[in-house]
Amino acid sequence: MSQTPPEAGPRTGAIDWEDPSSLPVGVVRDLFLTLSKALRSYQLYDRDNPVYLRFVENLRDAFRRIWETRDQLQVLVEEDRFVWMGEEVYREETRSGSLAFLLYRDGIRDLTFRRGVEGDELEILLDVLHRVRSARQEEDDLVTLLWDLNLDQLDYSAVDLLPEGTLLRAPDDPDPSALDIREILEGELGDEAPGGEVGRAVSEATALDDLAAIRPEDFNPTLYALDERERSYLEEEFHREMRRDVRTDVLNALFDRLEDREYARKREEEILDAIHQLLPTFLAQGSLRHAALLLSELEKVRRRPQALSEEGFASVEELMEEFSSPESVRELVQSVEGGTVDDDGESLALLLRHLKPRALGPLLARAEEVTRPEARQLIQRAIRKLAEGEEERLARFLSHSDDQVVAGAVRLMGALRHRPAVPTLVRLLEEGSPPIQEAVLDAARRIPTTAMAEAVERCLVSESRDLRIGAARVLAEISYTPAAASLRTLVEDRDMREADITEKLAFFQAYADLAGEDAIGLLARILNHRGFLGRREPPEMRACGALALGRVGTARAIQEVERARDDDEAVVRTAVKRVLTRRDEEDDRG
User: Fold this and answer.
1) pLDDT digits (tens, 9 = 90+) for 409-451
2) Which of 473, 474, 428 is nearest to 447 (CA)?
């Protein structure tokens, strides 16, 4: 145990130490708060890390502020706090992070810092405290370590820790080991004790003594036990650790070290190798958010002057090229289509921004191959964000040799509502392959120009059934009323009777949507008119007429539908019932 002299008096003219209100308690509290933070940084960072060095320098400044009024600082160490001049200057509610408990646990009861401790001995002290905090039970305690170091500017007082319940003998008490219980009992019982009584008394006394040695107090919690508050704290910290985004922390740590040029000069190659391994791992696991974060941070480092060596810069460029390769694009799209990504579209868009221009073509082609609607929409939204402001570059893909690339570029032009591309889109609608024509129809919904609509109207008589149906639906969706005349002609044409039900319905509904009230006469005649010898239109034509009248929806149109309520043909009655049921539901909601 080291004995410390009384704390030195105040420096001349500094503070009135007789007046408690003038004591620099706040400065002392700041010192121990800074000491606690410096100890945590010692555990987290390397010794040459700028963050750690800043904490240590802050601690030195805190000591220097103490020495402005004192030459030494002595504090009492209690189980959960430090006390100076009767004032509490540090407290930590939980033992696991308490600096006071760390000292108290090993028997230290007061601690004295002297001027100069902020020099070479400061980091030695931090190292000792760190070693003790993480030490195993069989390793040396704090008192032993401090004794071995024998620091000049640090003193302490310690007590020997004995097991609880141990009684210490006063100087004038007899040594218990020297007492014979048989002699004591014989002296008390005297000659009147019957035969064997002393022996029985000795046995009973020995048994009672054994029982007395086992006391409930011996099983009380020790300094290492946890109370309810501490258990709650540990449980909360455990759940917080389990929820912690470890991947983001790892990436931040890697880039912190990469930006530290002193450290990176020695370990740059090792760090970049780790980054090279992490990117494909994130992509394969569908962790797009972390892949996007990795590339964003890498891009920042790459653009910072002299942040990387020539070899490091070449390594980063190689990684970016690999990410933009057709193979990487294919794997990325497959992950999105497989539904294994942790993304709502934002991270995918951020990730795609790091693709090289040469990757846009493969990306457009792969997006066209995606069959799952949700995945396709997700990829297309991300590509749209990638292509914003790059319309001229995108336009070059409209003449690409791969039809899938052209179709993807057409859809993207439509999503961006790029009107200058309309002449090219019109040409592709007339000359392109079916996938390209389908993409142009999709773009026409978003670029409702007259030239585009006229081109779609011409497709109503195309040889391709799918193109005819798509054109009729697009014209109705963009409300291109000039096409109503063409649709009427086609509805009346005898060839319409040979079309399948899907095509019939698409044309009838498009005509009803565009002509409105003007369509009732033709549609009612198809549904209810009887010709020579009572002949009627084929049942499918009449059913389509009933459904189209329901699209018009006016009172006159519904009246014509009701006339066919009891029609002889089941397909017509079904169509009529559907129209009237929908009308009743709308009336109920109204």
Assistant:
1) 898 888 888 888 899 999 999 998 999 999 999 999 988 899 9
2) 474
Helix/strand/coil percent split, the chain, to 5: 65, 5, 30
C-alpha dist (Å) from residue 47 to 4, 50, 167? 32, 9, 47
Residues 203, 205, 211, CA angle at the centre, nearest 5°? Answer: 105
Is residue 18 helix, strand or coil? Answer: coil
Q: Where are the domains of the chain?
A: 20-158, 234-387, 391-479, 493-590
Q: How many CB atoms lie within 10 A of CB 316?
A: 18
End-to-end Cα spacing for the chain = 91
Strand boundaries in 34-97, DSSP class E: 72-77, 81-84, 87-91
Regarding predicted confidence, which is higher, 208 or 133? 133
How confident is the model at residue 458, as a pLDDT? 94
Residue with structure tokens 């100087």? 171
How wide is the angle at C-alpha 23 spanned by C-alphas 18 and 29, nearest 5°?
150
Closest CA to 422 of 395, 400, 401: 395
Q: Which CATH number fits domain 391-479: 3.30.980.10, 3.40.50.2300, 1.10.246.40, 1.25.10.10?
A: 1.25.10.10
217 vs 425, residue with greater confidence: 425
Is residue 514 within 8 A of residue 544, CB to CB? The reply is no
Question: What is the 3-state secondary structure of 208-264?
Answer: HHHHHCCCHHHHCCCCCCCCHHHHHHHHHHHHHHHHCCHHHHHHHHHHHHHHCHHHH
Cα separation, 27 vs 90, in Å, equals 11
**Residues 6+ away with beta carbon under 8 Å from 444:** 414, 425, 429, 452, 453, 455, 456, 474, 478
Provide CB contacts within 8 A for 36, sequence distance 6+: 90, 92, 99
> Pick the residue with more confidence: 310 or 215?
310
570 by Cβ neighbours in 10 Å (0-12 / 13-18 / 19+) ranks as exposed
Of 20, 85, 35, the residue nearest 65 (C-alpha): 35
Tell me the CA distances in angstroms from 86 to 75, 100, 111, one per residue in order. 9, 16, 14
Instruction: Give how far Cα 296 sits from Cα of 235, 250, 312, 320, 380, Å.
Output: 35, 15, 16, 11, 21
| Contact by Cβ (8 Å): 141, 190 | no
Residue 110 near residue 156 (C-beta atoms within 8 A): yes
Q: Say how many residues make up the chain.
A: 590
The answer to whether 273 and 230 have CB atoms below 8 angstroms apart is: no
Comparing CA positions, the residue from 511, 503, 507, 443 lying closest to residue 479 is: 511
Whole-number Å distance between alpha carbons of 161 and 120: 31
CB 187 within 8 A of CB 129: no
pLDDT digits (tens, 9 = 90+) for 52-91: 888 899 999 999 999 988 889 999 999 889 999 888 999 8
Task: Give the CA distances from residue 380 to residues 13, 98, 314, 374, 386, in Å, rounded to whole numbers and listed in that order.
Answer: 76, 54, 32, 10, 10
How far is residue 354 from each of residues 31, 216, 237, 364, 573, measured CA to CA in Å?
A: 47, 69, 37, 15, 59
Q: Determine how many CB atoms are found less than 10 A away from the CB of residue 181.
A: 13
